[in-house]
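Thread: Newbie trying to understand structure tokens

Hi all, I'm a second-year student working on a class project, and my supervisor (Dr. K.) asked me to get a predicted structure for one chain before our next meeting. I've only ever worked with sequences, so writing a 3D structure as a token string is new to me. If someone could post the tokens and maybe explain what I'm looking at, I'd be very grateful. Here's the chain:
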Amino acid sequence: MVGFKLRKESPETVYKKLRISAQAYTLGDLAMLDRTADAIDVVPATSSTTCSNVYAVAMETVAATATEALFCLVDPLQEWEVDCTNTPAVNDNYQRMLLTDKSTINNTHTDNTSDEAVFMQTGVVGAASAKRIVGNILKVANVTA
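---
Reply by user tm_fold:
Sure, no problem. This is what the structure looks like when written as tokens:
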């Protein structure tokens, strides 16, 4: 398994076609808002994506030549399963974590309080060697700092 996998929907889960350009997406890739005035709605999330820009998870794999893709809009009540960089630990539950890239969480075993902490672990999936955790994508709106 690679990337984000929706384990529990919220009553408000929305699936939507979003405009993309010059970026390939794989099922489970996290996307952030593209806030420039152009024909693109989202771009792949990175390790510097902030909670106010995290937006959706790709629900299909598309080539870089595609102009749109199906996404699941992120909702704080959803539960997601995702790959992690380090061996997961139950003791890390409720820690906030950064992304390593668009499909992996950087679980450093330390709570991260920065704006880039976009995931909160609530559990470990299977054997620790599988490096999969479960939790919530942390999304906030209209943050100005």
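A couple of things are worth pointing out once you decode it. The CA atoms of residues 32 and 53 lie 5 Å apart. The chain is about 0% helix and 35% strand. Feel free to ask follow-ups in this thread.
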